[in-house]
Design goal:
Order of helices and strands: EEEHHEHEEEEEHHHHHHH
Number of helices: 10
Helix content: 40-55%
Strand content: 5-15%
Shape: globular
Oligomer: single chain
Number of domains: 1
Strand order of the largest sheet: 1-5-9-8-3
Radius of gyration: 18 Å
């Protein structure tokens, strides 16, 4: 991506070096990425333990001695630039396509664990969005894990991760996030998972919408960038992660969508830039 000289966002809370408790929010790879990482590192998966971890425990943040590497500082700078880009793009899209004012989220950078409006969270759940405090949370080491464990690399792939979480914020502003969460709470587990897939695929679409307008506004994206993002969408598909971790898939347990579905909706956003094409809720599940 061509980001030289671009502004950085001021809506950033840098808590790197602080420590806190446990729990989770709504992440791009969520518990499946955490399970894959645990499998690759330890040779086993304990999804039950991860689900318990996602239940929520509070904690206090304590400052610790922490010295970021030059590589991490570069990732932090890039992440702040991407957040600024989402602010520019969604301000324009909301004005032109929604007829409303865009209210940007905050991005919290942390290491290992963090306290959020949704409870405590550990880095093992991956980047996530908390609707309670309208903030997205990222431990920058996730980008290294993407490269090392999943083979997903490149600046636009990293930008896609941030744009996906901002997509959940857009869903929150549009009201779909709360509506879907309510439906999930009222449904059996399989149906709730299906609603989760619809929500995640729309966030992929919204990440694509951001990419479309980012390139139109700044001429910053080339074909290799798009290929990197599409590669990333494939390797965080539920079917890919389940096959990699356990050798088989359990479709009823999918929460984010298959590789093909995630690629499809990301591409649709990238190709159209139009919110009218991103309705993942009113079509048959088999057609997602």
């Amino acid at each position: 991506m061509r980001m030289e000289g671009r502004r950085t966002s001021s809506n950033v809370d840098d808590r790197r070096g602080m420590s806190t408790g446990k729990a989770a929010g709504l992440g791009i790879g969520g518990l499946l990425i955490a399970g894959l990482v645990m499998y690759l590192l330890n040779g086993k998966i304990d999804l039950g333990g991860l689900l318990q971890q996602a239940g929520g425990m509070g904690g206090t943040e304590v400052a610790q001695d922490y010295q970021p590497t030059a590589q991490e500082e570069a990732l932090a700078e890039f992440s702040k630039q991407i957040l600024a880009s989402t602010e520019d793009v969604w301000t324009k899209v909301f004005r032109e396509q929604v007829g409303a004012k865009y209210e940007p989220p905050k991005m919290v950078l942390f290491t290992s664990a963090v306290q959020t409006g949704c409870g405590g969270a550990t880095a093992s759940v991956g980047p996530f969005y908390c609707s309670a405090d309208r903030s997205l949370y990222i431990d920058l080491s996730f980008f290294s894990q993407m490269k090392q464990q999943l083979g997903a690399d490149g600046e636009f792939a990293y930008a896609y991760v941030i744009a996906h979480e901002v997509g959940h914020h857009v869903e929150n502003l549009l009201g779909t996030l709360g509506q879907v969460h309510q439906k999930m709470q009222q449904s059996d587990k399989t149906t709730a998972n299906n609603w989760s897939v619809r929500l995640e695929l729309q966030a992929d679409f919204l990440a694509g919408v951001w990419g479309y307008h980012e390139d139109k506004m700044f001429n910053s994206i080339d074909e290799q960038d798009i290929a990197n993002a599409i590669r990333c969408s494939k390797v965080i598909g539920d079917d890919y992660l389940q096959k990699k971790s356990q050798g088989y898939t359990v479709p009823d347990a999918f929460t984010h969508g298959t590789s093909a579905q995630r690629e499809k909706w990301l591409k649709r956003g990238l190709q159209t830039g139009d919110l009218r094409y991103g309705d993942t809720y009113n079509i048959p599940y088999s057609q997602l």
